[in-house]
Amino acid sequence: MDGTITKEAIFKPENIVYKKTSLMTDNILSYCPGCGHGTAHRLIMEVIDEMGLESETIGIAPVGCSVLAYEFMNVDMQQAAHGRAPAHATAIKRLMPHKTVFAYQGDGDLAAIGTAETIHACNRGENFTTFFINNGIYGMTGGQMAPTTLPGMKSSTSPYGRDLKSMGHPIKMTELVAQLPGTYYVTRQAVHTPAAVRKAKKAIRKAIEIQQMNVGLSFVEIVSNCNSGWKMAPVQSNHWMEENMFPFYPLGDIKVDGKLVEK
Amino acid sequence: MTEEIIIAGFGGQGVLSMGKILAYSGIMQDQEVSWMPSYGPEMRGGTANVTVILSDERISSPILTHYDTAIILNQQSMDKFESSVKPGGILLYDPNGISHHPERTDINIFQVEANAEAAKLGLMKIFNMIVLGGYMKVKPIVKLENVIKGLKKSLPERYHHMIPDNEKAITTGMGIVKQIREV
Amino acid sequence: MEKELRLMKGNEAFAEAVIRAGADGYFGYPITPQSEVMEYLMAEKPEERTGMIVLQAESEVASINMLYGGAGCGKRVLTSSSSPGISLMQEGISYLAGAELPCLIMNAARGGPGLGTIQPGQADYFQSVKGGGHGDYRIIVIAPASVQEMYDSAKIGFDLAFKYRTPVLVLTDGATGQMMEKVYIGEQHPRLTEEEIKEKYPWATTGKSGGRERNIITSLDLDPYRHEKHNIKLQEKYKTIEENEVVYEEINIEDADFAIVAYGTTSRICQKTMQLAHEKGIKLGIFRLISLWPFPKKEIRELSKKVKGILCVEMSAGQMVEDVRLNSVDGAHIQHYGRMGGVIPSPTEIFDFFEKNYIKD
Predict the structure, then answer these.
(1) Does C44 lie in the same domain as C125?
(2) C155 domain residue, yes or no
(3) pLDDT digit string (tens) for B55-70?
(4) I need a surface site. Which of A252, A262, B153, C251 has the fewest CB within 10 A?
(5) Which residues are within 8 A (CB) of A183 and not within 5 positions of it... i.e. 6 or more apart?
(6) Residue A1: which pLDDT band, with cuts at 50, 70 and 90?
């Protein structure tokens, strides 16, 4: 023996402190390094795994950066047309009420082209869960202005900053859907720090648990970064998010047990 | 045998339901039937008409321009459909509210004063059945027993108690219909 | 067992038929002239009868994507609409075709373009048979011409949809939808259980139980070479459909000197025209298209060799006539007669046109 520590010597059950859930595939994530999507994917899949729902879950991938979410999430998945994930989820859940169904959507998908489907699924109180990844920009198409782009924020289609007069205001979809009687649990989270990740995971679990109760739609917004679209380094983008996004999109529960949370 | 009928009048006169009863009666006597309502904006314009075809053969076009029989219940319909009766065909109408009576001499023309009779009997709801009785008298294609069977089949159970009144209206219509022109 | 006989509107017959065909879900948005479909379904409470669900969606766009969601789970799902609504659905239909999902769509077509009119039209022929959305795809299109055929199209449509994993369109119009005729009501086919779906449609996203790999329903593939392969596979499927699923009806074609080619409501009207011709001793037959896609290419070619002239009658400026011309022999005498904007041609005006243009005196 030359004293080299072998892989076999380390890879023992007693040494494992963290393991990727089997509900994430081994495919290499297509997201930019530093992006929050990967973490959000993992948290959702961990919750599905921990709750033993692997064989009863159907997810819907949107159009946008997470269009290929089905490459990474190791459950049955459908890929929807732009903005239409809530329509898919509505039909799937109505036709198979005992399944766990979630829509995973970005801000362009959910808050622009899919606004009608989002509002109406929430209003009908469909019993599925929506995960809404809000990074204030169209990431996949190269950093165009999104419905959630902040006032004054630069993007490729608002190169001098979002001018509220000509381009309109950013839309707070999560606050909006919380007003609808069909939503039961509405919360806004982030995944940029270990503490935020732990909170977000609890919220995701709660949302999926609520789905099992058949009491209405559970809606989890995750405010995330887009370091590529924002043209920043990953760490810088997280700081920028804390300083600029969180004041406009404050974290925390908005509606719990069907009641708006008093601020 | 194929009988091509247009029934036309105001909405609310039971034009469509009269056509439906005729069609049902046709089914009861093993005929092919079609019922094509006036379709489109006219539906909301106050007039209603329906084309009913009864035939021993497969029915070709459910939409027609010429008819064996026209059953006319208001002036607008008279203006529109008098000319569409096939030569030698039948025009049956209720003279109530008709100011320009039919002038054709190449068709058989009948009157049934259904409106006046229904008012007299206090049975305005089944005015259309008096008209139907008139038609059944002048063109005995559907049998009364099949009309009754058709009514039983098409009416919800809760209206079955009205069938005797309907039957009475039909026989009344058969009794009061009169020919005013013969070719 | 003796079949039940009813007098029904085309729209109602179709609605009753989908329940009896074992449909799992209807998703739709009201639009004249076919709103009776959803009204009938809602009144019938199919959830109590068979467990079938009926949902009034927020738009045609949502409806067609609900079909995608349901079809992706191996469910028998359908929608119905009329021309403008069907236009809204085209993106979704393209996705369904791309993802190879079975579903049933009914179009009670009206006069267009735009909001057009609510009266019958056949100007959606191109949109229906050429693949109305983006990309290289076709969908099966069947055109009923009677209330009984409206009824029958539900089961036939679902069976074809699942046989080939493709959307199937029932193309009709308000005239056939609003018309009442007698209908023989068939038996109730049971809805498939989840276990049966898993066994029959192993591709469906039903939850990956039983240790299988995950199922993915998508029309996306960013690798062009892989995506081309997928396209080739689709084209092969369409070829198989063209070889096997052509349906038509010949009426007095055998000894005809002339033929009318028509479908749906117009083909019924033309049967009266044919009677008018026969009364004058003219041998006129009707070739009625039942499957609009696949189109009866060979049969039309043979017809064009056999008769002295073909008249295409449509409630459009001339759409089906292009396919008839494309498949006929060179030099065949083919003309179009059509009315537009919701006007229904009468048997006599068609005969007048025919006599003027085809019969030399």
Answers:
(1) yes
(2) yes
(3) 999 999 999 999 999 9
(4) A262
(5) A122, A125, A177, A216, A217, A218, A219, A255, A258
(6) low
Q: What is the pTM of this model?
A: 0.95
Say yes or no for a CB contact (<8 Å) between C68 and A89.
no
Residue A29 has, within 13 A of its CA and on its CB side, a CA count of 16
Contact A48, A27 (CB under 8 A): no
Q: Judge whether C181 lies within some domain.
A: yes
Cα separation of C161 and C153, whole Å?
A: 11
DSSP assigned state of A151: T
Whether C187 and C276 map to the same domain: the answer is no
**C278 in contact with B, Cβ within 8 Å:** no
Q: Is residue C242 part of a domain?
A: no
Report yes or no: C177 and C33 within 8 Å, Cβ to Cβ: yes
- Predicted local confidence at residue A9, as pLDDT: 86
Give residue C361's pLDDT.
62
Co-location of C281 and C160 in the same domain = no
Q: What pLDDT shows up at residue C2?
A: 63
Determine the Cα–Cα distance for residues C322 and B170; give it in Å rounded to an integer. Answer: 53
Calculate how close chain A gets to C333, using CA atoms only, in Å. 45
Q: Is the pLDDT of residue B41 over 60?
A: no
d(CA C138, CA C236): 11
The span from the CA of C325 to the CA of C329, in Å, is 8
Contact C24 A95 (CB under 8 A): yes
Residue C297: domain span: 249-358
Chain A residue nearest residue C203, CA to CA: A76
**pLDDT at residue B103 tops 60:** yes
Q: What is the pLDDT of residue B44?
A: 53
Check residue B11 and give its pLDDT.
Answer: 83
Note the CATH number of domain B2-181: 3.40.920.10
State yes or no: chains C and A have 3 or more CB pairs below 8 A. yes
User: For residue C144, what is the domain's CATH number?
Assistant: 3.40.50.970
Among the candidates C179, C194, C209, a domain finishes at: C194
Q: What is the pLDDT of residues A149-197, one digit of tens each?
A: 999 999 999 999 999 999 999 999 999 999 999 999 999 999 999 999 9
Strand order across the C53-56 sheet: C53-56, C25-28, C77-81, C103-109, C167-173, C140-142, C291-293
pLDDT above 90 (res B156): no
How many CB pairs (< 8 A) connect B and C?
72
Pair C116, C262 in one domain: no
Is residue C239 included in any domain, yes or no?
no
Q: Which pLDDT value is given to residue B39?
A: 60
Last residue of a domain, one of C126, C159, C194: C194
C164 and C270 part of one domain: no
What are the structure tokens assigned to C118, written together?
Answer: 């609510």
Q: Assess whether pLDDT exceeds 90 at residue A63.
A: yes
Contact across the interface for B59 and C348, Cβ inside 8 Å: no
Backbone angles phi, psi at C173, to 5 degrees: -150, 180
pLDDT along chain C (361 residues), means of 10: 85 98 98 96 97 98 98 98 98 98 98 93 98 97 98 98 98 96 96 97 94 95 96 98 98 98 98 97 98 98 98 98 98 97 95 94 62
What CATH number should be reported for the domain whose range is A30-260? 3.40.50.970
Q: How many domains in chain C?
A: 2
CA distance C185 to C169: 21
Residues C153 and C263 in one domain: no
Residues in C touching A55 (Cβ below 8 Å): 207-210
- Specify the 3-state DSSP secondary structure of C80: strand
DSSP C37-69: HHHHHHHH-HHHHTS-EEEE-SSHHHHHHHHHH
Q: What is the CATH number of the domain that holds C284?
A: 3.40.50.920
